[in-house]
Structures are given as structure tokens and as C-alpha cells.
Design goal:
There is one protein chain. The protein is of the alpha/beta class and 356 residues long. It is built from 12 helices and 12 strands. The strands form 2 sheets. It has a 10-stranded mixed sheet, with helices on both faces. The protein has a two-stranded antiparallel ribbon with strand order 6-7. Helix 1 packs parallel to helix 12 and helix 8 runs parallel beside helix 9. It binds 3-isopropylmalic acid and magnesium ion. The site of 3-isopropylmalic acid has 4 residues, from helix 4.
């Protein structure tokens, strides 16, 4: 029997509550599909700052590296908002992405049928189905480029730089094309090549990599146009590949189309398919501890983990189906509707387990 060691980074705010539900579901899946899971806990973000003084303790990096996969809740909260930039909880998140070489961020935006009415877009715009995969470069670009502040004759300025090397673009392009091969074989590369030199290199490099995937249809879009097309005609997209900053922005937009940001999972992968899995929503400090957070994005993150890192496809699909069924019989408050009972975080976790 395969046994996997999973590092849990529960984090801040609602992080612990939602990770607990995802663990419950993973345990149930393990039992049902015949594999084992052991867990180890590590600190990240605000909880790490409180306990060790740093948002990313070295021990956390070591524990993650020594495990088969990592499950993260969420980090951050008002308590730590006044700390200097390099000591904030978010710095821990950026640090763990870099330390583990997680350059490929997969952010699916799909609509579960029972949630169609929750989308702010009209039915006529959503069409039959929405199934977009955003592939975001995660360890380069302006997030990690040269930055600083300068003072010239009493006038302050600050700068951040967007820089991409050809190998960085190549590897994320390969990720996107490989994923497209398992989907509808369409990749849209999003950039700002009409203005930015780094985008022009991005476009040239993606075009070059595309030659190795003759079956995949490649198109290009400027990021401003893409932001507009996502709400005008989201059905046109299959895989979107883009830089760190553009992917950050477009994935929030795409997530809202699906009705609730509380539903969407993500995977951050290295070149060995080692991955960190997390819901794309934040730590929601305003509802933390109340037992009303939606655990489904974290549960779906476990499904992605089983699919992309642990190669347990059956279990992964079963969890997705259980989530879809759960939505037909109960809702957490964020996606509540008349006619269905509103349940707590833990009740939703139990419901998914019972449908597995
Ligand atoms: C995300 C978040 C992070 C990012 C923040 C919390 C640093 O917005 O994962 O999208 O910008 O990457
Ligand atoms: Mg973001």
C-alpha cells in the first residue's frame, strides 16, 4: 500500500477550520481507495510570526521538502498588516513558493452546475459550461524582480522590475501545453507585448515551445483584452498561460465568474510534480472561528493533489463528484440558496465524506 506524508500548513484565519475538513475527506478517500496518509504540521504566515518571529521558519521548508505533498489553508490577517513588507505573512507564502521551486500555478475556474445561478454573469454568457485552466508563472517576474526605493533631492520614488528569462518562460509554456493536451488542446498566451519588452520575449518563447505541440492551437491576447473577454465570452478559453502578476489578477477575475471564490482550488507545482495545494481564497479573518467558512475549495485542493502529485486519479475524481453532489443537498452561507439547508464548515465536510 502506498502511504503518503502530507505537510499541513493550516495558516491563519479560517485556514485551520477548512484544512481540518479537507483532512477528513482525504482520510475517507484513503480508506476507500486503499492508500495511507500520515500528516505533519508546520508553521507559515501569521501563526509562524507569532510563534517564531518569522513568516517562513527554516523548519517549515525542511518539513515540506521531506513530504510527498503540502496542503495549505490561508495566510494573513489584520493583526500582521502593519509589519514591514519583508516580515508580512504573505512573504512566507512567496518564500515557500520560491524555496520549493513551485513555478507552475494551476488555477482552474469551473462552474459546478448546481452553482450556475451564483455566477454574476448571465446564463447566456456562461453558456453550457465554463472550464478554464489558468496556468500562472509563480516564481518569477515582478514578484521576485529587483525592487527598491530611492530618494533624489528629497523626492522619493520606488520601483519593481518585471524580468523573465527564456528558460523560465519555456518551462511554464511546457506546463501549459502539456495540460492543454489533456484538455481541449487550446492555449491562449496572455501578455502586454504591445508595450513591454519582457512580454515580447514571453511571446517569442511561447511561440517557439508551441512547435513541439503541433496538436495544440496557440493564440495570443493582450492582458487588458483578456480581462474584458473573460466576462464577455469566457467559453472561448481552454488554457490561459501568463506571467505571475497577470495571472494573479486574471485568476481572481476568473474565480468570480464561477460564483464563489470559496469554491476554487489551486496547485503550485515544481518540475518533479511535487506540489503545494491551496484554496485560492484568502484567510477571511472576519469569519474565522465561526464555523461558517466554505471548506470546498480546500477539499477540491486535495482532489488536485491526488491528481497531479499522488497519481490517485480515481480518488481525485470521486472527491470532485462528491463535492458536486453535496452542492445539490446543502450549502455553506457564502453560496446559500432558498430551498437547501445552510450548513456549517464541519457539516459540509461530513456531507462530502458521506457522499464519497
Ligand atoms: C495569490 C495571492 C498572493 C499572490 C498574495 C497573498 C501574496 O494573491 O495567491 O493569488 O499575490 O500571489
Ligand atoms: Mg491573488
Amino acid at each position: 500500500m502506498n502511504t503518503y506524508t502530507i505537510t499541513l500548513l493550516k495558516g491563519d484565519g479560517i485556514g485551520p477550520e477548512i484544512v481540518d475538513q479537507a483532512v477528513k475527506v482525504l482520510d475517507r478517500a484513503a480508506e476507500k481507495f486503499g492508500f495511507g496518509v500520515t500528516y505533519q504540521r508546520a508553521l507559515l504566515g501569521g501563526e509562524a510570526i507569532d510563534q517564531t518571529g518569522a513568516p517562513l521558519p527554516e523548519q517549515t521548508v525542511q518539513l515540506c521538502k521531506a513530504s510527498d505533498s503540502v496542503l495549505l489553508g490561508a495566510v494573513g490577517g489584520p493583526k500582521w498588516d502593519t509589519l514591514p513588507g519583508d516580515q508580512r505573512p504573505e512573504k512566507g507564502l512567496l518564500g515557500i513558493r520560491a524555496a520549493l521551486g513551485l513555478y507552475a500555478n494551476l488555477r482552474p475556474a469551473t462552474i459546478f452546475k448546481p452553482l450556475k445561478a451564483a455566477s454574476p454573469l448571465k446564463d447566456s454568457i456562461i453558456g453550457d459550461r465554463l472550464d478554464i485552466m489558468i496556468v500562472r508563472e509563480l516564481t518569477g517576474g515582478i514578484y521576485f524582480g529587483d525592487r527598491g526605493r530611492e530618494d533624489q533631492n528629497g523626492v522619493q520614488s520606488a520601483y519593481d522590475t518585471e524580468r523573465y528569462s527564456v528558460p523560465e518562460i519555456q518551462r511554464i509554456a511546457h506546463t501549459a501545453f502539456k495540460i492543454a493536451m489533456q484538455r481541449n488542446k487550446r492555449v491562449c498566451s496572455v501578455d502586454k507585448a504591445n508595450v513591454l519588452e519582457s512580454s515580447r520575449l514571453w511571446r517569442e518563447t511561447v511561440t517557439e515551445v508551441a512547435r513541439q505541440y503541433p496538436e495544440v492551437q496557440l493564440s495570443y491576447m493582450y492582458v487588458d483584452n483578456c480581462a474584458m473577454q473573460l466576462v464577455r465570452n469566457p467559453g472561448q478559453f481552454d488554457v490561459i498561460v501568463t506571467s505571475n502578476i497577470f495571472g494573479d489578477i486574471l485568476s481572481d477575475e476568473a474565480s468570480m465568474i464561477s460564483g464563489s471564490i470559496g469554491m476554487l482550488a489551486s496547485a503550485s507545482l515544481s518540475d518533479t510534480n511535487f506540489g503545494l495545494y491551496e484554496p485560492i481564497h484568502g484567510s477571511a479573518p472576519d469569519i474565522a472561528g465561526k464555523g461558517i467558512a466554505n471548506p470546498l475549495a480546500t477539499i477540491l485542493s486535495v482532489s488536485m493533489m491526488l491528481k497531479y502529485s499522488l497519481n490517485q486519479m480515481q480518488a481525485a475524481n470521486a472527491i470532485e463528484q462528491a463535492v458536486s453532489k453535496a452542492l445539490e443537498s446543502a450549502r455553506t452561507p457564502d453560496i446559500a440558496v432558498a430551498g437547501l439547508p445552510t450548513v456549517s464548515t464541519a457539516e459540509m465536510g461530513d456531507l462530502v465524506c458521506s457522499l464519497l
